Amino acid sequence: xxxxxxxxxxxxxxxxxxxxxxxxxxxxxxxxxxxxxxxxxxxxxxxxxxxxxxxxxxxxxxxxxxxxxxxxxxxxxxxxxxxxxxxxxxxxxxxxxxxxxxxxxxxxxxxxxxxxxxxxxxxxxxxxxxxxxxxxxxxxxxxxxxxxxxxxxxxxxxxxxxxxxxxxxxxxxxxxx
Length: 177
What we know:
Distance between the termini: 19 Å
CATH superfamily: P-loop containing nucleotide triphosphate hydrolases
Helix content: 25-40%
CATH architecture: 3-Layer(aba) Sandwich
CATH class: Alpha Beta
Order of helices and strands: EHEEEEEHEHEHEH
Number of domains: 1
Strand order of the largest sheet: 5-6-4-3-2-7-8-1-9
Strand content: 25-35%
Shape: globular
CATH topology: Rossmann fold
Radius of gyration: 16 Å
């Protein structure tokens, strides 16, 4: 049985929302890591920010960014992403690691990609989201035998939420020693 639980689905289907609900239901004290949120201005998505579970946040992508690293129309601030993401997921062996998301913006960081590849070999329990479309580096991560991927749709939202909560509660973190 895998110990890496990842949600995937089309953009704006609710992956981060489900992730946050799972954290809330199980208890934030059992998690470490980060999630991303859209930045919306006048009903238009203009960027993304990263938020660590300890409350630190920063803009990591913006349409007006001058960054040379581009994903679609967004300039990506890799150093800000690394500053928060890497600190929030390292050295937390007794917690479930939250990674939202493994996507093109995030893997622009070679350091992050290397850490993800290490996690995929470890027994550390991971809860995250992963890019829906095909991408060579991300597709390789998706083939890991420890990874359970749940495709989220509007129709199965509550079922996936319940299933992942139940499966996380069956992990060794919640079993008597």
